[in-house]
Write a structure and sequence with these properties.
heterodimer, A: mainly alpha, B: mainly alpha, 0% strand
């Protein structure tokens, strides 16, 4: 049982370190291009930000 | 297109194949030597999927380490993955349902294959990266399982534990050879030696890693200036 807990903790910490940056930085920063207004709020292939 | 993408991913992953099978076998033999069977080898390779972490994990399992020690050691050994993930945010953008697995499977070797964002001509970028990640993990699991089975029939596994030391010596040598700035490497060696002398062979690892982190943080300004 203890071995399973040790493996679980190792797996959890490893996954946390891999996923954390994707979670922390998932929010988009507001773009400054004038073309942004044309495709907001939905992603569009016409928007430089969406295709960047 | 899918077939072409899978083929391209396989070709890209071939250099990792040899390394992962050999290192996986070393891990599997060590794990068997510590008294853990093939199920543990497969589970650890599937769920943790980190070479150095799994090698260190064999010691943690064998010694019955506490949860705190396990969590701290895991954090120290795998902290570099934070930086891999940060630099792959843009590359993995728009990867859809494959993205969680691709993030999970981001090891040193997979990162080195995918970090430039290049994709072979005609291949679907997301599927290509997904399959490179998947192939690499398959190699690692197969190596671990093979090693564990091999460990069951080997009369002695003495000396196999040195494979991890050899891996890190090779990584250190490569880092020294390819980098003009040797200060980080010297910092690592110096801090480790100091902590080994101060805390002894049983307790030096975590203090050494904390000290290395502190010293490199203090030296960051100088490193950025020389970069």
């Amino acid at each position: 049982m203890k071995s399973a807990i040790i493996v679980g903790v190792m797996a959890a910490v490893s996954a946390l370190l891999r996923f954390l940056p994707f979670v922390v930085f998932r929010k988009r920063t507001p773009p400054t291009s004038p073309t942004w207004a044309g495709c907001c709020p939905r992603p569009s292939s016409a928007c430089w930000w969406c295709t960047a | 297109m899918t077939k072409q993408t899978i083929r391209a991913a396989f070709i890209t992953s071939v250099p990792v194949l040899a390394g992962y099978i050999v290192l996986g076998i070393g891990f599997g033999i060590l794990l068997r030597g510590a008294g853990y069977g093939v199920g543990w080898a497969a589970a650890m390779s599937a769920l943790i999927y980190g070479g150095s972490m799994q090698y260190v994990g064999v010691g943690l399992l064998a010694s019955g380490a506490s949860i705190i020690t396990t969590a701290l050691t895991s954090f120290m050994v795998n902290a570099r993955h934070l930086f891999y993930s940060i630099s792959m945010i843009g590359v993995y953008k728009g990867a859809g349902r494959a993205k969680p697995y691709m993030i999970f499977a981001l090891t040193d070797e997979t990162y080195s294959l995918l970090c430039d964002g290049k994709v072979p001509e005609g291949a679907d970028p997301t599927m290509y990266r997904f399959f490179v990640s998947l192939f690499n993990q398959c190699y690692w699991i197969v190596g671990g399982v093979l090693g564990n089975l091999l460990g069951a029939v080997l009369p002695s596994t003495a000396g196999v534990e040195f494979s991890m030391t050899a891996l890190f010596v090779a990584a250190f040598t490569e880092q020294w050879r390819t980098s003009r700035d040797h200060l980080p490497a010297l910092t690592g060696a110096g801090c480790t030696l100091l902590c080994l002398l101060l805390f002894g062979p049983e307790n030096f690892l975590i203090p050494a890693m904390v000290l290395i982190t502190v010293v490199l943080t203090l030296l960051r300004g100088r490193e950025e200036a020389t970069a």
